[in-house]
Amino acid sequence: MHNPYSAYNQHSGHQGLSGVPPAHDHYTGGGGGGGGWDSHLTPSTAGLAPQMQMHSGGAAGNPGDWSRDPIPNVTIPDLPSYTPDHFESYQPVRLFNELPSHMTSLAFDDSGQLLAATGLDTDTLYVINCSTAAVAKPCPSKKYGCHLARFVHKNSNHVLFSSTKPDGKDIVRLVDTKKNEFLRYFRGHSGLVTSLEVSPVVDAFVTASLDETVRVWDVRSDNCQGIINMVPGKRGVASVDPTGRVIAVVSQDKQPGPTSLPLIHLFDSRNFDHGPFETQPIYDPTFNYAAAGSLGAPYPTVPPITQIRFSPDGSTCLLTTAHNVHYVVDAFDCKSLARIGSPTAPSPAAPPFSSSEADFAPDSKHIVVANAEEGGNLGVYSYPLPDPRGNDGTVDQMALMQRPPELRNRETRAVCQMDYFGNAPMQRVAFNHALDMFASVSGKQLCFWVPTEKQA
Question: How far is Cα 180 from Cα 200, in angstroms, rounded to an integer?
Fold first, then answer.
């Protein structure tokens, strides 16, 4: 199939990790390219990994195209440059004690003026003005529950969210927060929705569910535009890259263990019915799997993954978990680059409503993590950047050496910790890339942080 990253993927020879047989238990063959695909699939699903099968809804007469509008060409803008001093200047400036609920998700609108937060205890969607700190009239969803709120592009009063209760019937709803009325219902899932992300460039979105499917939608249509079926026993999360042309899906055992690794799959959003063009295992890059295998030592367990976030420049993916460990993956060849946080170890199942445990800073070179293990309530980390590619797809050694030394190393580094004396450990964090601020959640306390020079 067509690879939207073809200019970059020519260098990709990464076929997983040697010495880790469990990484390949869930699919045949290595990464994208078609080798090893299951030959008994029907013509409509030919070329797909056994792990994934597609059923296209056929938007706009183009099977596999998830939006009625053509995806525009997107140029990644120049990104700001952040220093450790800048991160250390962030201070909590507004504490929202009037929101009596544990927040399960945080998301900003395109302008950065509005924050949507979902309350677990109150089953309520809250919308907050980031400039005035005014809380709009809450949108209760007592009957259905409320999680994974996301703004659409064309109207910041319109917010998508998933249900958390049986009466919600696993339906995604579009609500007008100003009128407090539902505008559309997106039916199809038969299990709890675990992931909901809007395309950065068009009003289309992708969802994943415990029903072992990933679905793609157009905001203007009640009908699902396509389905990715996972094999039984898997759960998934999904996201869309900054260009809107790549859908990333992570599939993982519902009960993770050391005998298997999660897989990350990349799809062309314009032809997702053709199957993934890249598939690789997600592993702990700090662990010597080959040595452990030769000694008969157990492999570490990757905890339940709760969210995929693409960096603003689209070069890396952050895979967050419900525990104090997260992973950074190259967005082009899916190679595992870094582990942030505690050593990977066996862990309990993920809480049913998790997300927003960590986020990229606007510079794409740092990650802000809630409840950092070094002692701060919030930690800021630099991480290994993918090697720069030339026009022929090979590593540009000159560009690599021109990087500052701190960006050439292959280690995750704690830049700073931010202390906040809340009533509970820090659980959620989301960066506002438009206004250079971020929001955090500690227990039932939502807090806004800004650099000190902006407080005046």
Answer: 25
**C-alpha neighbours within 13 Å on the C-beta side of residue 259:** 4
What is the distance between the alpha carbons of residues 267 and 151, in angstroms, rounded to a whole number?
23
* pLDDT for res 311: 96
The per-residue pLDDT of the chain, averaged, comes to 79
Strands (E) located in 68-155? 90-96, 103-108, 114-119, 124-129, 139-140, 147-151
Decide: helix, strand or coil at residue 95: strand
pLDDT at 308 over 60: yes
What are the Cα distances from residue 11, in Å, to 8, 111, 246, 334, 456?
Answer: 7, 37, 18, 12, 49
Closest CA to 428 of 383, 377, 380: 377
Per-residue pLDDT of 416-445, as tens digits, reads 888 877 777 788 999 999 999 999 998 888
**Whole-model pTM?**
0.82
Residue 211 CA to its chain's centroid (Å): 19
CA distance linking residue 136 with residue 359, whole number of Å: 25
How big is the CA angle at 235 (ends 55 and 59), to the nearest 5 degrees? 25
Mean pLDDT throughout 280-305? 84
**What radius of gyration do the chain's Cα atoms show?**
21
Separation between Cα atoms, residue 107 and residue 146, nearest integer Å = 13
> What is the set of domains in the chain, with CATH numbers?
20-81+105-357 (2.130.10.10)
| Residue 255 near residue 349, CB atoms below 8 Å | yes
For 297-377, list the strands marked E by DSSP.
Answer: 305-310, 316-321, 325-330, 336-341, 358-360, 366-370
Are the C-beta atoms of 302 and 283 separated by less than 8 Å?
Answer: yes
413: β partners: 382
DSSP run (H or E) holding 292: helix 289-295
Would the CA dihedral through 213, 219, 222, 225 be positive or negative? negative
d(CA 298, CA 188): 39
CA–CA dist 253, 11 (Å, integer):
30
Long-range contacts of 406-410 (CB under 8 A, 24+ apart): 406/382, 407/365, 407/382, 409/384, 410/384
21, 258 Cβ separation under 8 angstroms: no
